[in-house]
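Dear colleague,

Thank you for sharing your sequence with our group. We've completed the structure prediction you requested, and as agreed, I am returning the results in plain text so they can be pasted directly into your records. Please verify that the sequence below matches your submission; if there's any discrepancy, let me know and we will rerun it promptly.
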Amino acid sequence: MDKIGDFMELIDRPEYIEKLKMWCDYTDVVKIVTGVRRCGKSILLTLFQNYLRANGVEKDQIQEIKFELEENEWLLDRKKLHANILENLNPNKMNYVFLDEIQLVEDWQKAINSLRMRSNIDLYLTGSNAYMFSSELATLIGGRYVEIQMQPFSFKEYVMGNTDNLQEKYDKYTNESGFPQTIAFSGNRQLINDYLMNTVYQNTIQKDIVKRFKLKDTARLDNVVRYMFDNIGNETSLRGIERGLKADGVSVSPTTIDIYVQGLLDSYLMHKCDRYDIKGKKILQTNSKYYVADVGLRTALFGRSDLDFGRVLENVVYLELVRRGYKVSVGKIRASKEIEVDFVATKPAGEIEYYQVAYTALEPETLRRELAPLEEIKDNYPKFLLTMDYGEGVSNGIKRLNVLGWLVG
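Please find the predicted structure tokens below.
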């Protein structure tokens, strides 16, 4: 194994391991781990296999196929894949089958659905493109799958339990990236940039967008991607993107922009955050916000000098809320059209929390401005203002928290 691989074997992802353990041996439910390329999905499968072996599962009960390896190219035929898995089963015990980057297999759903029906096969898949979740998948597998959405390291995972000098660690995190492999580069800016731009960014763009949509003019795609990365946390529409690009001398139609943006979302490079009418309790269809999968990737694209610290912090908080299992929206207060709450975070049971994010709110006028949207909301759900400022407090029932403590808590 290479140096990075050796290093990565030492890094656990307990949050995701626990989710896999929870569904282990439910053979009728396919476990699908999704997420942006290089966020650690393959390593997660290895870690879970280690857990299984440590708990009595024997080597001949485990099959693993990595479809990006050239020696497995012949298994990209779903019928050969199906036959090969059956041929290597232990007929007398439970079998655990791990298939990495399953989207590379054409019509993979048909093979998986057949295997799922066997009571002695427990299936675990990874995929790097949300396009794999088509209506055909729902039809063929009958909804009998659970999606585990994986991200690069959270700030809490990044600090690895060492909470000294959190501000310094946060600066490094947003500058260097949360992609697990970058930690092995020990702060070498050139290696980190090359890895993020080539192995992550270009690889994802080429495989998940250019190849999928059969694009020939990649220059326009690059302009749209850079615009989207540069405008994280800003309300965005297709027409707005068109006007913004045109101001820079680039002409791209809204229809084409829509295709490119969908490609970014399907490849998990970006996340869409819809607006939510708090009083009307409904999702609004215009001017969503978008956030990048990893702020270090954005830094690699634009450099540190162009970093908007407030919007980067907002991006980090958004990803953390999603990681904690919330459905996240931008809160609009219709009676006050210029006022919005950064995030409306809804738990699966329907409980709501409101979050406003600011890099600092030490100045009285800034504090008043940041609290105002939360004060407009008259329900009794919890409300939070997250900042880099030290110290905590309560203002009109709104909890003021240090965001770094919240991130690692």
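Summary note from our side: The longest strand covers residues 282-292.

Kind regards,
the structure core
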